[in-house]
């Protein structure tokens, strides 16, 4: 059994400007298989930079409010929102609320730096 707690994860600034903590990644957790799971945090008034991933990504919002942009479309998101982002889509998210926007990011296959491109 693998068990991790969010308060024990180390955050780092991702290429798109978001604060991320890797929860599961095959490079650290072989049992993760071909997926990765990260916990993202975006402060109020901030947004990530537009980017394209070579792999699919799913966002699941835990708390906060924001707008997710994908290929010219915009969608308001909040707690319990789940959004599928297909590979190659131009995407970014902005925090439009007064609190941190906290969301989970699932990638398949697992996220890798060389598959994450500015858009």
UniProtKB/TrEMBL annotation:
Signal peptide: none annotated. Residues 40-107 form the Cupin type-2 domain. It comes from the Bacteria. CDD domains: cupin_MJ1618. InterPro entries: Cupin_2 (IPR013096), PKS_Associated_Protein (IPR052044), RmlC-like_jellyroll (IPR014710), RmlC_Cupin_sf (IPR011051). This is Cupin type-2 domain-containing protein.
């Amino acid at each position: 059994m693998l068990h991790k707690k969010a308060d024990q994860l180390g955050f780092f600034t991702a290429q798109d400007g978001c604060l991320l903590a890797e929860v599961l990644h095959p490079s650290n957790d072989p049992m993760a298989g071909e997926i990765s799971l990260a916990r993202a945090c975006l402060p109020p008034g901030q947004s990530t930079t537009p980017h394209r991933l070579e792999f699919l990504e799913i966002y699941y919002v835990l708390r906060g409010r924001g707008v997710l942009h994908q290929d010219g479309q915009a969608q308001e998101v909040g707690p319990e929102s789940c959004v599928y982002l297909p590979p190659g889509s131009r995407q970014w998210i902005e925090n439009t609320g007064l609190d941190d926007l906290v969301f989970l990011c699932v990638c398949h296959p697992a996220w890798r730096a060389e598959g994450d491109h500015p858009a």
